[in-house]
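Forgive a beginner's question, but would it be possible to get a protein, spelled out as residues, together with the matching structure tokens, please?
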Amino acid sequence: MELWLLCWLVLSLVSHNITFQKGSGRCKMSNGRKPKPSDSRNCMEDVNNLLGNGKHSDSIEAVKALEEFLEKTEMSETNSMSVGHLVAVLHKQKGPFRGLKLSANDDEAKSDETVTNSKVSVRLPRELDIGSDNTVVFCMLTWPEANGIIWGNKDVLYESRLVGLSVGGKNISGLREYVNITWNLTVNETQEPRCVFFNFSTKEYSSEGCETVWERGQSDVTCSCNHLTYFGVLMVSPSSLSDVDLEVLSYITLIGCSLSLFTLVITVLLFITNRKARADVSMKVHINLVIALILLNLHFLPSQTVAALSSTGLCLYMALSLHYSLLATFSWMALEGFHLYLLLVRVFNIYVRRYLLKLSVVGWGIPAIVVALVVVIDRSAYGHVPLDFDNPNSTKICYIGNTTVKTVTTVGVFGLVFLFDVIMLGVTIRRVVSLHRIKEFGKSDRGRAKRDICTLLGVTTLLGITWGLVFFSFGYLTTPGLYLFCILNSLQGFFIFLWFVMSLRKTENPPAKTSSETRSTNS
């Protein structure tokens, strides 16, 4: 009998744990019956116990179940509850809704009045239009852990605190009048606050739809958000770039890209009007890279303006086009390297049937496939993205917001292209050095050195080697690395224009010597 009782007790405890992990236990909804305030308190007790002792995934599911449970609690008037590390207000609206103020400290929470030693205060806008059949739920969770690293985030959650806001029977998002959550906080010189919310679908923190209203020296921070969920403040390291640096880099990029766009258009016109250039296969490869860069600059320059508009569809188009033109630029940089490989490594038997058509299918087709796959898998990956990722409130452009998609389809792709093109640049340097060892009659060393330097600079520009500076934009190299990156890459189109003009001059004025070495060098 004692053995049977022991087994029954163990099975009861296990089944209770499994049930709670599925969002039940004392947070379980009974079919056909709405929970009472006493049931809500019991549910809060279970969640409170789990916050300190439960697993990462269990506590997430428990908090989500608690929110649903509180929304459906049946009551005739506003109720305030406090259990351990949780305080909550279930607000029942009476009369027309003209907005609502809530506040809370570690021990209590109230609506329409301020508590003493308030930690958090909330203002809900009139736009919510809450009726008597809707329950406004405010729930503040404070973890007992001292380090403040909650639910897997690398940054510290201020005071290990999350504030949940929801309205029973309504899914609140896309508000024009923002919800304001004000936190009392103390910030040291090495950190700054960032307003975030916890996304229960992705199980990650995000700042999308939230603005951080704070200046250094203030004793509070306000999070203005256009939706309701669980909000918190992450303490992050301040951006390594000053406001002056950001402004200067913006002007450098704007001027450089505008100049590149102008000169790239001239390059296309020169190609169209020059018969010899149109007959040169190498020139045709170059002009495809030129067109890709034109598309990239055309969609990058107005992206900031489009992001400031309210048109979601236009921003989606701009983000798609910017992603496609960037991938097309990388593709044609890689194809420039492949073309160089045929000229310098294979040299003989390099005829390929319908060569340019095949290059065009790869150069323009593969980027289109990648973008199409992203749209099919996760269309929301495109949207408004801050230029300074350390500061979500910085100027935004229309681009890829999903970190994984951005890393795989841009950084990953460019890493492969960069590796291949660096190898081809090494092959070119070796070829130039080997030719330099052969004496050429009638040529001075100084003139030959100039020509070799111009050749290597031109090849470096066509292969996009300067884009590799992005890998050095970290740590102490962040600021100088970004300056070099912005200057050299915004002017890439201008450098290609100079290379194109010099190539046309060589074509129109061929050298008098026709030795095998000279022909080889020209190739």
